[in-house]
Every structure is written in structure tokens, then in C-alpha cells.
Amino acid sequence: MTSTYDPRILDLNEFVGRLRVRDGPLTMGLGFGPYVGGEPGFGELLVVNFNVARFIFPELSLESELKWVNFEKLYHDARLAVGLAKGVEIFLRTAHHYDYPPTTYIGARLGSAESPAHIVDSFAIETGYYPYYDKHKLLVLGGFRLRLLDEPTRRFLVDGDFRTPILAGTALFAESRPDRMLYSVSGQYEKSLPGGLFGAWYARYDVDMPVDEPIRFSSSLATGLVLRNQKDFNRLEKSLRFEVAAGHDFTYDYDVRLRLGAQARPRGLFPVGAEFRVDANSDRQTVEFKAFAAFGKDIEVRPFVGVRKVSYFAGPEPPEDEFINRVTAGVALYKWF
Fold this sequence. Notes:
By secondary structure, the chain is mainly beta. The chain folds into two domains: 1-110; 116-336, Outer membrane phospholipase (ompla), Chain C, CATH 2.40.230. It contains no helices and 19 strands. The strands form two sheets. The protein has a twelve-stranded antiparallel barrel with strand order 8-9-10-11-12-13-14-15-16-17-18-19. A seven-stranded antiparallel sheet has the order 1-2-3-4-5-6-7, with no helix packed on it. It is globular, with a radius of gyration of 22 Å.
């Protein structure tokens, strides 16, 4: 649960090996393994998957998973989806996750695998480890970009991002639940400018939701202008990259974001570089500097080391921490379509 306190907090780490068999539109899977650390009373886990594409009629598909915990309790997760166009579908989902109440969802899903003109532009995920910080063990963040309009001189983009700090436990697989969930959804209308620059108007909604704590979530809406010297800051295209945004935050007065990047590729070696990022408003600031290397073609892998100070909106402002607590190291994965 987020934002609303719930006494049922489960810390479960599934370590499962899976075998899958595919035959045309049918996929069946079987998995078995133990729970590692975490909640007592959870020993073995058996998982069965049953997926059918083009079920009854071509646009309908079914995905399902059945969990058998300790060979005693059964839990389910099933999704029925209807394709509207290539890469776009609506779904109905029912799930019973462990001891939480059964829930039903309806929503939309976007994908890129079946579409020659990908609506999904890019996807990224990053995990950073804090070796000296006694509150957070990890910071997991990621996001995706949807390219809803793409013409030679203009684009309309939708970005969805998340950030999740993981609490430190007494061991690697100890009770290490998320401290909070932070989400950001933004839209940008971009135009090409002279000199190889790109300008855009943006609108962004941010929300900070503490997990399993009696602290109300905090949110804000911001809008303003963006200027950058390449279409996607995360791509290692130019030796010097920048992106700067400035605007009005309707909750925190102003909104400023700065991205600076530099990289080089020594002869016969892989690219290496550094990035500096700042997010700021009238209440909180986030600052990050990291050095990285880049490997891979289809999926780009970037191990990094650096320092990162992250501010959160919900709850009281934490006391100033020591510099060594901000040291982080990890890896980021990038995929462009």
C-alpha cells in the first residue's frame, strides 16, 4: 500500500528457475524455487504459467500465472487483453497477491514488438547501490518515452519515469522494502531550431508516495520550456550534450532542470564520460554527478560511479547527511527503438 498505512507488510524474495514451452500461439511455463530471506513461514514456491495469443479471435490474448506457496495456498494473476492496433491494447486483469485482498484492474498497454513504426521510443532502467548509507541500500529508477508524433521538424513526446529508494536491512536479503514510490509523467511538444538545437514546451506531473507510513503523498504540476542540443539527452551522440528546462511549478513556485554530459571514445576502446544533473524547485533539490563507461549495441550497458543527493517532497525534510552517504555505484541499461 502507498500513502495509506497498512499493518500487513510482506518482504518476499522469490528465487525461481523456470522452464517454458512454446507451440504456436500457446506458451506454458513451470517454475520452482525457494524464498530467500525475508518473511518467515514462506518456504517453497511452485509457479505455473499459461498464455494464449489469438485466443478465440485474433485480437484477444490471455496471460495467466498461478502460484502455489508451500504447496498449501494458491494465488493467481490473470490478464485478458484486446488489441486495438499494433502495439496498443486494453486489458482486464484480476490478481490475488499473497495475503492482500484480490483486486481487479482495467487499463491500456503500449508495446513496440509488433509495430514497425514504434510508438515506444526508448526504455531505461538503473540501479545504484549506496555502500555507506545506513538508511537506503539501493535507488532503482527508470522510465520510458512514447513518440506519439514524429515529423522532421516537430515531435510530441510522453515520458513516464519512476524512482524507488530501497531501505537498508541487516543483510543483503533482509527486510528491504521500498521507502517510497516517486512517479513523473510529462508531455513535450518539440520543434527544431536553427543551429541543431531543439526547443519544447513541457508539462509535468510529479507525485511522491511514502510506502506503508502514515504520511500523506505530495504532488506538483509544472510547465515551462526546454532547450537541448540533441533529441535525446541519454544518447551518446555528441561529445558535449546539454538539456536545460525552466518553468513554473504550481506548488513550489519554480521548476529548474539541468543536464550536462561529455564523453569520448579512445581509439580501440569503449566510450567513457561523465554527467551532471540538477533538479530544483523552491523546496527541495536533487544533485547528481557520475562517471560511466558504455558497452553494447542493441541494449546499451553503462556501469557508473558517482555521488547523488536526492530530495523527496512528502514528509518532513531529512537532516543534512554526510558526503560519504551520497557515494553510489551501479549500472544503467538503455534501449532505443
